[in-house]
Design brief:
Elements lengths: L10 H54 L12 H20 L13 E10 L4 E15 L12 E12 L2 E2 L6 E3 L11 E6 L2 E5 L3 E3 L3 E3 L4 E5 L4 E4 L4 E3 L4 E3 L3 E3 L20 E2 L5 E2 L2 E8 L4 E4 L2 E18 L1 E5 L4 E11 L18 E5 L6 E4 L6 E15 L6 E17 L2 E5 L7 E2 L2 E4 L2
Parallel strand pairs: 5-8, 5-25, 6-9, 6-25, 7-10, 7-26, 8-11, 9-12, 10-13, 11-14, 15-17, 16-18, 17-19, 18-19, 19-20, 19-21, 20-22, 21-23, 21-24, 22-24, 23-24, 24-25, 25-26
Antiparallel strand pairs: 1-2, 2-3, 3-28, 4-27
Length: 437
């Protein structure tokens, strides 16, 4: 008997066609996926650029109209004008990248601003947010086979603009270190039998505050006395603290403490001769009884600086301690470094406006300001990784106008110590922008 079997010819062709359709689907997905990713990345970059351009325009407007942290008001016509300038700049920058937006974000395609004042517990933040939103249709090749609607992509960017502001949000004394490993390192320390009066700004420690002896500390004005961490305030003896120290819930943001380092490149090597010092690089500066020196305006890069007597005066100076210490144990010293708004080319540059004494980063040395009652300092005294020690001569009143920012800050002695801090007379951080979101 003859059996007829059905032919299997052509089955491979069917499988090949099915596989080819699947392969084309994957190819289509890869092509359209690449297009979508590329278009979204381009739109996001354009949104970032638009927001940053608006933020930069707002910052410049605030600087030119002299709107600063301490006179900030969201209803101020100058702040409103800065916001309008930001929107116009954001729209213009979007057009450069072939996107059309307007002054409204209601349809996810526009530029807008928001002014705010936010109390974060340990500091008050003041800013303008510049938002740029871009909505656009992405052209695809294969997605339409499974989806008939348009492929719409929405992206946004937010730039935060902060006005010119004081370092560390205007705290007169600020300790940056975030722990107190022993009784001598980290935090703010008070001891002795003296009275410490601080006005114009508060005391803030990223870790502990220690007080001892019969020191009497009084802080008037904004800021109060704040430390971070459980049981961060420690006392011994019979000290007095007014107002009572409080624990903050937030540390100050890093941007509020950043100070650019000066550059010593190109400075000529100098040594002390006669009664006048000129800007330059000094390996050692020693001032003794009988010496009377005047520092000309400018930047002084010094390896070690010591003064135990005599007189020293200078205006518009920045003293940058590169490797060693800045030690004043006696004599009369009157130094100032006016902030940028009170400087001109004949006084400040190449000094850092408002920065008086700067202990270089990674330098764990000391700035000791222990001159007599006739001494005064105006400007920022800054030791990000070192120690600042401020005191006075027994029976005399010492008065300074500096801001003290260091890893560890110590105020002690047997004299009345007055620290009068003024935002407008000390180092100021220029209006700044950051791509916030």
């Amino acid at each position: 008997m003859k059996i007829n079997l059905a032919s299997e010819k052509g089955q491979a062709m069917v499988i090949l066609v099915i596989a080819l359709v699947a392969l084309m689907g994957f190819v289509g997905l890869a092509v359209d996926g690449g297009i979508i990713y590329s278009e979204r990345r381009f739109a996001q970059n354009a949104s970032d650029a638009s927001s940053l351009s608006g933020g930069g325009a707002a910052a410049l407007s605030l600087e030119n109209s002299q709107v600063v942290y301490w006179n900030w008001n969201c209803n101020d016509s100058r702040v409103v004008a800065a916001q309008q300038t930001a929107i116009a700049a954001a729209i213009q920058q979007a057009q450069v990248n072939s996107f059309t937006i307007d002054g409204s974000t209601a349809d996810n395609n526009g530029a807008s601003t928001r002014c705010d004042v936010v109390d974060n517990g340990s500091y008050v933040d003041k800013y303008i947010d510049v938002t740029s939103m871009i909505s656009h249709t992405i052209g695809t090749y294969f997605v339409q086979f499974v989806y008939s609607g348009p492929m719409i992509d929405n992206v946004q960017a937010i730039t935060r603009v902060r006005p010119r502001s004081p370092l560390a949000f205007g705290n007169a004394v600020f300790a940056t270190r975030e722990d107190c490993p022993n009784s001598d390192t980290g935090g703010v320390h008070f001891d002795g039998n003296n009275q410490v009066n601080i006005s114009g700004g508060g005391i803030f420690s990223n870790a502990c505050i220690r007080s001892g002896g019969s020191v009497d500390v009084n802080v008037t004005g904004t800021g109060g006395i704040t430390c971070i961490g459980a049981d961060c305030y420690k006392e011994s003896g019979n000290p007095g603290m007014s107002p009572a120290p409080k624990t903050g819930d937030y540390r100050l943001p890093p941007f509020s403490m950043e100070v650019p380092e000066p550059s010593c490149d190109g400075l000529a090597s100098k040594s002390v001769h006669g009664d006048t010092m000129s800007p330059g690089h000094y390996s050692n500066v020693r001032i003794n009884n009988g010496d009377e020196l005047t520092m000309e305006p400018g930047l002084y890069c010094v390896d070690n600086f010591r003064m135990n007597g005599g007189k020293l005066n200078g205006e518009g100076v920045t003293i940058y301690i590169t490797t060693g210490d800045f030690i004043i144990t006696g004599g009369e010293i009157v130094l100032s470094s006016p902030p940028a708004r009170n400087c001109d080319d004949s006084i400040c540059p190449p000094a850092l406006p408002g920065v008086l004494i700067y202990l270089s980063r990674d330098n764990t040395g000391e700035i000791a300001l222990l001159g007599n009652a006739h001494s005064d300092y105006l400007g920022l005294v800054y030791a990000p990784d070192g120690t600042i020690e401020l005191g006075g001569t027994a029976g005399e009143t010492s008065q300074v106008h500096a801001q003290l920012v260091a890893d560890t800050v110590k105020l002690h002695g047997n004299a009345e110590l007055i620290l009068n801090y003024d935002d407008e007379e000390n180092y100021q951080k220029a209006a700044m922008i950051e791509l916030f979101k």
